[in-house]
Amino acid sequence: SQTIHQWPATLVQPVGSPLSLECTVEGTSNPNLYWYRQAAGRGLQLLFYSVGIGQISSEVPQNLSASRPQDRQFILSSKKLLLSDSGFYLCARGTGDTEAFFGQGTRLTVV
Amino acid sequence: GQQVMQIPQYQHVQEGEDFTTYCNSSTTLSNIQWYKQRPGGHPVFLIQLVKSGEVKKQKRLTFQFGEAKKNSSLHITATQTTDVGTYFCAGGLTTDSWGKLQFGAGTQVVVTP
Q1: How far is CA A28 from CA A25, A31, A34, B26, B83, in A?
Q2: Do B90 and A100 lie within an 8 Å CB cutoff?
Q3: What is the rounded distance in angstroms from the CA atom of residue A65 to the CA atom of residue B110?
């Protein structure tokens, strides 16, 4: 099965605090992985994608970073959160030719 | 910038009516996929179209892929309250060697009973 684990489901963090969201994938090797952010009532904004260990491509310049220390692990981080970082963060796997599977998402509120 | 565009951004529909949402790309797509995201949930795969001019149906949903493989549409007939959510199209660009999936911004559908 194509299972994607994301945690936590909800998170409230103060401005200026660090962030680490983890995503792990089961059932496949060498997946293409994505981090998306979705503001309330809006579309999916692609933040990062990775085609392999240590290979990260950034789509939008910002104070977020991503890492892929293992084949099935994708981490989204920030050293200092901003209010504008609030949103629904989704991890996904898929390629341009195959069905994408999403994790349950993390709803982040920066206060 | 956004390479896959969706219109409309919002769609208010009376229950029982039909509506269509459109997806357009400036670049030829290798395939088009459609997803539905229920309020508070995550996007879930609905269907994939690969062939030029392909049409697929799922009950009240009809999906079409354009002849030039640059546009697609989702038509829903006799809308029900269970159709509420955001519908996303996504596709792979033939010019993208990384095989990255490109999502549209989505059409948020509100159904009035």
Answers
A1: 7, 7, 15, 32, 31
A2: yes
A3: 35
Instruction: Select the residue of B33, B42, B101 nearest A105 (Cβ to Cβ).
Output: B42
**A97 touching chain B per CB within 8 A:** yes
Cβ-Cβ contacts under 8 Å between A and B: the total is 67
Q: Which residues contact A27 (CB under 8 A, 6 or more apart)?
A: A1, A2, A3
Query: Distances in Å between the alpha carbon of A10 and those of A2, A5, A99, A102, A108?
Result: 23, 14, 26, 16, 6
B6 vs A29, A72, B89, CA distance in Å?
32, 31, 7
DSSP B53: T
Mean pLDDT (10-residue bins), chain A, 111 residues = 84 97 89 89 86 89 91 96 95 82 95 97
Give backbone dihedrals phi and psi of B93, rounded to 5 degrees, phi first: -90, 135
Residues in contact with A98: Cβ distance below 8 Å, sequence separation at least 6, in sequence order = none
Contact B109, B15 (CB under 8 A): no
